[in-house]
Amino acid sequence: MSNIIKAIITLVSDPKVALVRHYTSVNRANNMGDALEEYVKDLFANTVEEQDENTRHLRIREVFSYLGRSNTPPDSLLRGGGDAIEVKKLQGINDLALNSSHPKRKLRNDNPKINAHCKNCEPWEERDMLYIVGKCINDNIELLCMIYGDEYCADIETYSRIENVVKTGLQTIGDIELVQTNELGKLNRVDPLGITNMRIRGMWTISHPLKVFDYVYTPDNSKLFNFMALINEEKYNSLLYTEELEELVEIIEDLIISDVLIKEPNNPAILKKCKLITFKI
Question: Is 162 within the bounds of a domain?
Answer without folding.
Answer: no
